[in-house]
Amino acid sequence: MQYQAIVTLHCMDKQEYAGHLCDDPKVAEKSAAQQALLANSDLVEAQKREVPTKRPSGMMLSPEERAKKARVDPAENPAITPKTELNSLCMRIIGRYMKKGETIYICNRIASQYQSTVQITCLPDEWGQRAWAGHLCANKQKAEQSAAEIALKDIKDDPQLQELAASSKGKGKGKGNYWNMQMMWEMMNNWWGGWSDEREIIIEEPIIGEMIEWKGHYGWMKTDHPIEHDAKAMRGGKIYINKKDIEGTPETVAEGQKVQFKLYVDGNGLGGPKRRRGGFGSLAATELTVAVEEADLFLAPLGVKGMTLHIQSGEGDCGVSTFLPQEPIPRAIFPRCTRSGNLELRRNPSDHCIAGLQVVGHSGQPLALASRNAPKGAPVSHMDMLLQSWQSQYLAPLWPELLMKADAVPERQDDPFGIKLRPEAQKVLLFSGNSPGARWELAPGLDSAEPLGQKDVLAVCIPKFQEEPTILLVDSEDLSVQQLRFSVS
Asked: Which residues are in the DRBM domain (predicted)?
C-alpha cells in the first residue's frame, strides 16, 4: 500500500499541493510539504533575504552567490567544461539544437593512457569532416575533454564561424507564429522521434555518483563526471535510480551519499537497470511519478515562451477523483509550469472562452461509456455521438446518472454536462479526448431558431496519443485543422 498526501495552505487562498506516492504516511506528508515549498520558492527566498545575517564559515552559498561566483571565476565552475562549451558554441553556429550522432567521440587506449578524437558533423563545409585529437590522459572522460578543448580553440579562432555564431540569434523568425507552430513541431518531433522503449547500456563499467534526492526506495542522482549523451537533458539532467540498481544493495540510502551503479538509457532518459512495471501493463508508482515530472519538464518551456497552457483533468490523473465531473489537477503536479505564470488548469468537462472561441468538451469517458452501452451492431462512432451531443446540448449522451455521485446531479440548468452557449463567442470548438482515431467535422446549426445556436461549430475527436501519436492544431480564426503525426525513428 502506498500513500499520497495533499497539503492545503489556508493562508494562501487554500492552495493545494500534492506529494509523491510513498510507502510511509509520514514520508508522504513530508513530500507534500516539499512540493509546497518548491512551488513557493520565490516567497521563501524573499523571507530569507529580509533577515540579514552573517553567513557562518562553511555555510552553503545561496543560488545568487553561486551564480555570481560562476560569472566571476568560470574556470572554477565544474559545470562549465570544454565539452559543454563546445556544444553550446556549435548550436549557436548552426542555429538549432544538435541531434544524436552529430558529435562523435572516439576514444582509444594507448598503453595505460587514453586519447580521444572528436568530430562534429553538423558544422558547415569542411569543418564537418574535420577531426580533432586530444592529449594522452589518465581516463576516457579527461581524454574527451582534451579533444573538445582543442576543437573549441580552433573553432573560436575562425572568424567565419564566429560570425555565424554571433548572427544566429533571432534569424528573423518573428514573434508568436514561429514559436506556436514551428518551434512546437520541432520540440515535439525531437522528443517523440527520439523515444524508444528499448534499453541500452551506456558505459560497461560501473560509475559513481552522488544522491541528490531520495524518496525511500528510488531517487535521483548526479554522476561525479559529466555524461555526454543526448538524453542527459531529460528530467533536468537528473538520473533516475532504484534502490535495487545500487551495487552492493546498501541497507540505507540518504541524500549526499556516494553510490555505484551501471548507467542505462531508454525512452524515459538516463537511469539504472531496473524499470519495474505494475500489473495489467500500467506504470508502477515510481514510473508514474517520473512520467509526471517529465511532462512538467517538457511543457514548462512552452509556458516560459508565452504560450498559455490549458491542461484538463482526465481519467486516471493524479490528485483528482475518478467520478465525473472531475476537479482540475492540483498545481503541485506541474510546479515548473505554474512558475511560468501561463498555466490554466481545467476541470473535466470544461467550458471556457478564448478570444471569441468557446472551447467545450471532455476527456472522452462519456462517449466511451455510451459506445459500450450501444446496441449490438449499431454503427455509432465517437464523431456521431459528439455531433449528437451538440444537437442535444448535452455532453453525455445516454449517460446513466446512477454512475455519478449524488451531489453531482443538480437541476438541468446547473448540470455540468449541459452546453451553455456564450453570447461573447462567435465560434465553438467541441472536443472529445481519448477517441479511437483523429477526426474533425463542421457541425450543423442547432435545430432551433435561437440566434446563439447558429454559430460556426467544429467537432474534434482527439485520439489517444500512445496509440496514435498525433496532435491537432486548430486555427481559431477559420476553424481549420492541421494534423501533426509523430513516429519512432
From this structure: 82-154
Domains of the chain: 81-171 (3.30.160.20), 174-275 (2.40.50.140), 349-485 (3.60.21.50)
Distance from C-alpha of 294 to C-alpha of 298, rounded to nearest angstrom:
6
Residues 457 and 419 sit within 8 Å (Cβ to Cβ)? no
Q: Cell digits for 331?
A: 498545481
Give the whole-angstrom CA distance, residue 165 versus residue 143. Answer: 26
| Distant-in-sequence, close-in-space partners of 98: CB < 8 Å, separation ≥ 6 | 87, 90, 91, 122
d(CA 334, CA 343): 9
How high is the pLDDT of residue 403? 42
Asked whether 266 and 197 are in contact (CB, 8 A), the reply is yes
Residues 6+ away with beta carbon under 8 Å from 140: 107, 114, 116
pLDDT tens digits, one per residue of 347-385? 989 998 988 899 999 998 888 888 877 767 665 788 888
Q: Which of 139, 112, 275 is nearest to 207 (CA)?
A: 139
At residue 29, what is the residue type?
E
Q: How does pLDDT run across 269-317, given as a tens digit for each residue?
A: 676 665 544 333 344 455 566 777 778 888 888 887 788 889 998 887 7
Short-list 47, 120, 128, CA closest to 85: 120
Residues sharing a CB contact under 8 Å with residue 116, sequence separation 6 or more, in sequence order: 105, 106, 107, 108, 133, 134, 137, 140, 143, 144, 146, 147
Report yes or no: 469 and 486 within 8 Å, Cβ to Cβ: yes
Per-residue pLDDT reduced to its tens digit, 333-349: 888 888 888 899 999 89
Q: In the chain, what's the furthest Cα-to-Cα distance?
A: 89
Indicate the DSSP class of residue 183. I
d(CA 457, CA 360): 11
C-alpha distances (whole Å) from 301 to each of 183, 309, 339 are 11, 11, 11
Exposure on the CB side of residue 39, measured as CA atoms within 13 A: 25
Residue partners of 317: CB distance under 8 A and separation at least 6: 326, 329
What's the confidence (pLDDT) of residue 109?
A: 86
For residue range 2-40, what is the model confidence (pLDDT) as tens digits?
A: 788 888 887 777 777 777 888 888 888 888 888 888 878
Q: What b/e sequence results for 201-236 when a residue is b if at least 16 CB atoms lie within 10 Å of its CB, and e otherwise?
A: eeeeeebebebeebbbebbbbebebbbbebbbebbe
